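Hi V.,

Quick status before I head out on leave. The structure for the redesign project is tokenized and pasted below; the design run finished overnight.
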């Protein structure tokens, strides 16, 4: 059995690695955001706007994968595939959305629309989603899959009795 000091050291180490991962995710996301915004600003005006429909289709596919992931058990062979499509596909999709939303904002401004709140909200949502996916990538580097959604978290909790039964505590018995 580990003593309280060993548990405290492990908890402190875990907190430090989570903090480091969050800072790295923020730097990576900021760099990606700046690169895609720069590309959108220096690209031919309206070049990214023609990708609005394919991006919308990609968003629908991402939603379908997310909903499908709710019904696939974590132990299934399909779960890692759905997880990777959801994670990497979402990262790619919303990185492209940064360029699209930037050009849409420029185009609408040139046409006289002056809704700063809407454009700031669009870019904030893009940033938040890219940040959360980069953070998932950095936090999941130790080889374990992170939960895809709320249903997956519930399925992970179902695995808990099996883990405890290996330690001699079977929770399935009354």
């Amino acid at each position: 059995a580990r003593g309280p000091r060993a548990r405290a050291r492990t908890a402190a180490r875990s907190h430090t690695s989570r903090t480091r991962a969050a800072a790295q995710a923020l730097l990576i996301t900021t760099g990606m955001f700046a690169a895609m915004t720069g590309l959108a600003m220096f690209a031919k005006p309206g070049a990214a706007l023609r990708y609005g429909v394919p991006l919308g289709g990609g968003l629908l596919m991402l939603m379908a994968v997310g909903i499908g992931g709710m019904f696939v058990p974590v132990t299934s062979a399909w779960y890692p595939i759905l997880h990777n499509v959801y994670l990497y596909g979402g990262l790619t999709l919303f990185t492209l959305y940064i360029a699209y939303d930037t050009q849409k904002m420029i185009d609408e401004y040139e046409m006289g629309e002056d809704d700063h709140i809407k454009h700031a909200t669009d870019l904030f949502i893009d940033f938040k989603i890219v940040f959360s996916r980069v953070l998932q990538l950095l936090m999941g580097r130790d080889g374990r899959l992170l939960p895809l959604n709320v249903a997956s978290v519930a399925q992970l909790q179902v695995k808990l009795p099996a883990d405890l039964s290996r330690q001699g505590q079977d929770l399935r018995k009354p």
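Above is the designed sequence. The two ends are 26 Å apart (CA to CA).

G. will cover questions while I'm gone.

Best,
W.
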